[in-house]
Amino acid sequence: MSTSARQAAPVAWRRAAVIRDRAWQLAREGARKGGSGARAGLAYLADRIIEIAPRIPVRDLAALRRQFPGLGPEQLADKLVAGAAGATSTVGAGVGAAAMLPVPPAMPTELAAEITGVAAIELKLIAELHEVYGVRPPGNLKARSTAYLSSWSGERGIDVMKPSTVNTALGGQMKRELRQQIMKRVVRDLPNLMPFMVGAAVGAVMNRRDTKRLAARIRADLRKIQVPWEALPELPPLEKPAEPLKLAEPPEEWGD
């Protein structure tokens, strides 16, 4: 990074923090006043993410160990996090030059695409981290997808020994939590979508940072209930989605 870029970075981040805080205030104010446009925009994104969750291709533990031979659980998890962070930073950089108003009714297509793209990558990461730590949620593809949505929206690992954390129905509470998480993502993305900001570079850095932060929280939960590989019962291969979602082009670490 050049000297001028390093000097500009603190200013950009201060501007980003101010815009993000103000945008969050405006968004909360709009929701409190019953803005139907804001609710409709968030509901659309929430429903879209719920729709794509079962279509996300997930590698099971056997496939991951074949792809990354010789790595232990923590090393393998590190690989997955690095790849996912690289992939979400690519998504952020791809739409970093778009401009928007600070409330969901004016949400452009580019921002909606970024939010759903980042969500898909992070959901894949969460699912594969559960595989690595030996705590695959029970049930079929739909049930596991619901569990991973709950994990993503709450930024927590799934304790398979506690049915309440696994058998979360897609009811009102689940959707409200998910919409709240999406609102946070929208507000977080605002600074890198403003034309006078650094743009794509800030978007890439913010997405990478937030994906790593999410992964750290999930991994901290999963380590508490981790099952060693040698103690794992033989599990059936994961079902393949009927219509697999095509994710953004990943860096090398992400794999197929």
Keywords, separated by commas or semicolons:
256 residues, mainly alpha, 63% helix, 0% strand, EcsC family protein
Describe this structure in words.
It is globular, with a radius of gyration of 19 Å. The chain is built from nine helices and no strands. It has 256 residues and is mainly alpha-helical.
What is the element string, with H for helices and E for strands?
Answer: HHHHHHHHH
Stretches where pLDDT is under 50 for at least 5 consecutive residues are: 4-8, 94-106, 192-198, 251-256
Beta-strand residue fraction: under 5%
The portion of residues assigned to helices is 55-70%
- The coarse silhouette is globular
Rg to the nearest angstrom?
19 Å
Q: Terminal Cα separation, in Å? A: 31 Å
Q: What is the total number of structural domains? A: 1
* Total beta strands: 0
Structural class: mainly alpha
What does the main sheet amount to?
A: none
Mean pLDDT: 74
How is the topology of this model organized?
Layout: H1 3-32, H2 36-52, H3 61-67, H4 73-94, H5 109-132, H6 141-154, H7 163-166, H8 172-189, H9 200-224
Task: Describe, in short, the structure shown.
The chain is mainly α and 256 residues long.
